[in-house]
Amino acid sequence: MTNPGTSTKILSLAILADLLAVFLPLAFLSPLLPEPVAASSVSRSPNSQLSSPATNSGSSAASVGTLGETCNNSEALEEKLTSFVNGWLQATNWFGKPETGIDMLIQNFGSQLINNLNSTPWPDINGRARLARVPVIMYHDILPKKQVFFDVTPEELEQHLRLIQANGVTPISLDQLVTHLRTGLPLPSKPILLTFDDGYGGHYDYAYPLLKKYGYPAIFSIYTSNVGKNTGRTHVTWQQLQQMVADPLVTIASHSVTHPLDLRPLSNNQLIIEVMVSKQILEAQLGIPIRYFTYPSGKYDQRVTNLIREAGYQAALTMNNLDERNAGQSKSLLAIDRIGQAKLEQALAQAWGGPKLSSWNHVYFTQINQESPKASSREVSCQPHPTY
Predict the structure, then answer these.
(1) Which of 117, 285, 327, 351 is most deeply packed, by most CB within 10 A?
(2) Count of CB atoms situated within 10 Å of the CB of 94
(3) For residue 260, what are the domain limits?
(4) Which is it for strands 292-294 and 315-317: parallel, antiparallel or unpaired?
(5) Does residue 163 fall inside a structural domain?
(6) Strand pairing partners for 192?
(7) DSSP class of 289
């Protein structure tokens, strides 16, 4: 049987190849930014200053005309560069290496990105990301007949997905959210993250087909001891999980081995089993890296987060029914807050992906002005886009 992780990587390679075919000519065969106006339309040599508009009015008029053409093309240029950045990050996210994508972007696009990216040391949350309002919505079982108040029927779940669609909200992956929280890179204008806890059979039978229908990504948190068991509620089997992880829409997180009500009072040996061994079991069974952890009942302390770090998780999800907050207001990447599905409508109404990055061209022409302080701002500056 083909390893499901391999199928995902093959698909990711195909998508990456398409991205490279489209964007490599832009990146390497032509300048990403326009030729500096100061160099092409104003008399300038390495050892001379810019000509003064008062003594070279003809050159100045030509400069304004050339600059006007450049500025007219700036929006299309910015669109292409932004598309490249978004596509590259999405592809590297699928490979599970978003930091590699960021490093390569910085290496290839230099000052443009350095002026816009201010990565925050892990696991802190970037200050720009704290301005955003990204709800992480938490679901549990999906089944035709509710057993407890927080169960959701398939009909209700589809109503939720329709409501997301009708409100112009974009479901994102946890990889995308973590990249945003680390770097401050903006998300879609109205983002949301969907999460499903405990690995119930209804996730495979009802949630996953609906997510595929709408093309929405989600994260499923699995505790391994109940995989394939019926404990009064059915749970997903390893075969079903293998099918799900072959789909780029699905991210799997560890939810411990036995789902203790509270990790904090466990002995060190017990905690190692719940945090580290659960990761090892999932990776062995599914053939994929497990980069995320979901705290059972949302409970953790410093000892627990230290082990999360040691195990190699990149982020962890928590919950607090008494204090539900958006992702950007979380303590850190090791304690990303969530909101119960009952508050979906309120969450949709305030979802916001954060302030946009400074315009690429605004950064570019600002740099020219700084390099050429005697140049007329009319000659070397496009009208800046708002930063926020």
Answers:
(1) 327
(2) 19
(3) 132-350
(4) parallel
(5) yes
(6) 171
(7) -
